[in-house]
Every structure is written in structure tokens, then in C-alpha cells.
Design brief:
Shape: globular
Structural class: mainly alpha
Number of strands: 0
Largest sheet: none
Strand content: under 5%
Number of helices: 9
Helix content: over 70%
Distance between the termini: 36 Å
């Protein structure tokens, strides 16, 4: 899965670059991503980063496709891109917490830039917007339900025994600052 996600990300970068660049530069953009040593390593591991990267790249591609189609009054193309985008963002939400932020940002962008256009669009476009909304809301709600059902706390990922806060409390040395330099204003980050 990680290798397929890596390949999907490279293809998405190529497709996205083709929106604005000539063929040769688009190939170069895809090759630059494909040759990234960190990604070459990650695609051989069982981690979620390659999957999220692939979903992220395709979400951007479908956001651009949807936006361009809406500007060009191509409701059918926009509707198809919107549903694909909803599936990608839902999967991203269920893959990594970064997907929650990505979904919120893309959702806010689409609402601000094209909300009125979608409301006045064809029934197919409005139906796609409803499907998109259901998909991107169902994923985090399903995650919260899962935590509530099996860990008896919907926010277990944030305050449970395996949360970042709990791990920090377990691993910090008593009497030492767990974040050295954090409260020193003369240190510039």
C-alpha cells in the first residue's frame, strides 16, 4: 500500500503540474518527488505518511479540477471532481489527523470561493455537494464514535493513555523542563 500510494502521489504531482507547466517541466516536478530519498525510504515502510501524501496530492488535484470546472460552468465535471474529492478527504481524515485540517481548509476554500455557484448549480452538482458534505463529515464522526464505543471517550486520541500528552508525562524526567527553551523569549525559532 505504501508503494502504491507513493506512485499515486507522483502521478498526482505530474497531473497537477500539467495544469500550469509545459510537459517537460511537469515530468521534472514528478521526477523530483519520485527521487526524494525520504519518500523512497518511506514507501518501503508500513507507515501512514505515504498513504496520506497520495491522498493529499489527489485531494489538491481534485480541488483544482472542481474549481476550474465551476469557473467554466461545467457542472458535470465539477460534480465528479467533488465526489472524488470527498472520498479522498474522508480517507485522509481516517489516515492521519493532518487530514482533519486538510479537509477543513479545502472545505472552507470551496465554500468561500464557490458556495453560491454550487447552490445555483444543476441538481447533479447540488447532489454532489451533499455527497461531499456527508463524506467529509462522516469520517471524523465515525472516528469519534469508534473512540467513544471502544475506549469510552470520544477524545481518547487526545487525552487517553497513548496520546501525546500522556506519553510526554510518562517519559519526562521529574524536575526537568520537558520543553527546554520553550519559555525563553531570547531564543528565536
Amino acid at each position: 500500500p505504501a508503494m502504491l500510494s507513493y506512485v499515486a502521489a507522483v502521478v498526482a504531482v505530474y497531473r497537477l503540474a500539467k495544469c500550469w507547466l509545459p510537459e517537460a517541466w511537469s515530468l521534472l516536478a514528478a521526477a523530483a518527488l519520485a527521487a526524494n530519498p525520504s519518500l523512497l525510504y518511506l514507501q518501503t515502510t508500513a507507515m501512514t505518511e505515504p498513504l496520506f501524501l497520495g491522498l493529499f496530492c489527489w485531494a489538491v488535484v481534485w480541488t483544482v479540477d472542481c474549481s476550474r470546472a465551476l469557473v467554466a460552468n461545467q457542472d458535470s465535471r465539477a460534480a465528479a471532481a467533488l465526489v472524488k474529492l470527498g472520498v479522498a478527504l474522508s480517507a485522509a481524515v481516517l489516515t492521519r489527523y493532518d487530514g482533519w485540517i486538510l479537509t477543513a481548509l479545502i472545505g472552507c476554500y470551496l465554500l468561500a470561493a464557490h458556495g453560491r455557484r454550487v447552490v445555483r448549480g444543476t441538481p447533479r452538482l447540488r447532489a454532489a455537494a451533499i455527497i461531499f458534505s456527508v463524506l467529509v463529515l462522516a469520517a471524523p464522526l465515525a472516528w469519534l464514535w469508534f473512540n467513544a464505543r471502544y475506549f469510552h471517550d470520544p477524545l481518547d486520541f487526545a487525552r487517553g493513555p497513548y496520546s501525546a500528552k500522556a506519553i510526554e508525562l510518562r517519559t519526562s524526567i521529574p524536575g526537568h523542563d520537558p520543553h527546554p527553551g520553550y519559555h525563553r523569549p531570547w531564543i528565536v525559532f
